[in-house]
Write a structure and sequence with these properties.
By secondary structure, the chain is an alpha/beta fold. The protein has two domains: 130 residues, no CATH class; 113 residues, Ribonuclease H-like superfamily/Ribonuclease H (Nucleotidyltransferase, domain 5). The protein is 54% helix and 14% strand. A five-stranded mixed β-sheet has the order 4-3-2-5-6, with helices on both faces. β2 and β3 form a beta hairpin. The two termini are 28 Å apart.
Length: 266
């Protein structure tokens, strides 16, 4: 086994599999820290909810970064013919803040960005960040907020904007998983916490979104197995190990792509 970098789990008594399980349960499902503690206790794992909080803060962005890197590199090979942009109000320590989100035509969450205001400057930063990471689409659908028009005019792609009464339902429906998770967390207290959780939650939600309402049972089971293997492989890549400890890495190229590719690969 060749060690490139020190393992981030080297100072923890618990194994990396337990840490990955706790982080995945907290991010993927609408559970509180104490709910995760109770579920792990039923499995014979005795840890406190503060330990789950520490693991999430340290390893959540690490796992999500590996998942995002593989998915983005794969998705850039495909043509993005339509994006949906929208902003949602989130209460942070009793004050209104804005979470900007970009979703493609299949419901894949492309970007999440938190700002204090909902003006042209905030929209411009959000769109530049999204275009830099994912490229340029053929059409961008927004609501009637004038900040989108001003930002797209500054970027020189105002001709791609489309505004319709029900045209943006795709991104409106994509807010629901985050809203369910927000209620379980009893709101946010800091802006940076909201930004971190929104980004990690979007990456994990994309990874496990198997589109089960469109497929049969057998296909769903294959996609779910590939997604779970992809999370294990993300843990291996995050530790920078090579060798038998990363046996799940061989299916990474299938499990971190779109679900339609997972079916053909398996």
């Amino acid at each position: 086994m060749t060690l490139h970098e020190p393992s981030p789990f080297r100072y923890f008594n618990s194994s990396s599999e337990i840490i990955r399980l706790a982080v995945m349960m907290y991010v993927k499902y609408p559970l509180s820290l104490r709910n995760v503690e109770d579920l792990l206790a039923e499995r014979g794992i005795d840890i406190s909810h503060e330990t789950v909080r520490s693991w999430w803060n340290r390893f959540g962005p690490l796992f999500a970064a590996e998942v995002r890197k593989r998915r983005v590199s794969t998705m850039r090979q495909f043509h993005h013919w339509r994006w949906h942009l929208d902003e949602m109000v989130v209460r942070v320590n009793g004050e209104h803040r804005y979470l900007w989100r970009a979703v493609d035509h299949e419901g894949e969450v492309l970007e999440s960005y938190v700002t204090k205001r909902r003006d042209r400057r905030a929209a411009l930063r959000f769109m530049r960040r999204t275009l830099k990471r994912h490229g340029s689409p053929a059409t961008i659908i927004t609501d009637g907020l004038r900040s989108y028009r001003a930002a797209m005019t500054a970027l020189g792609n105002a001709d791609k904007q489309r505004v319709g009464r029900w045209a943006n339902n795709r991104v409106e429906n994509s807010h629901l998983p985050f809203r369910r998770r927000e209620r379980a967390m009893l709101r946010f207290r800091q802006l940076k916490t909201l930004q971190k959780f929104a980004s990690v939650h979007a990456d994990v939600h994309n990874h496990f979104n198997a589109e089960r309402h469109l497929i049969d049972r057998q296909t769903f089971k294959k996609r779910r197995t590939a997604a779970l293997g992809g999370m294990a492989a993300a843990r291996c890549l995050a530790t920078r190990f090579e060798g038998p400890n990363c046996e799940h890495s061989r299916i990474m190229r299938f499990s971190l792509t779109r679900p339609s590719l997972i079916t053909s690969a398996t």
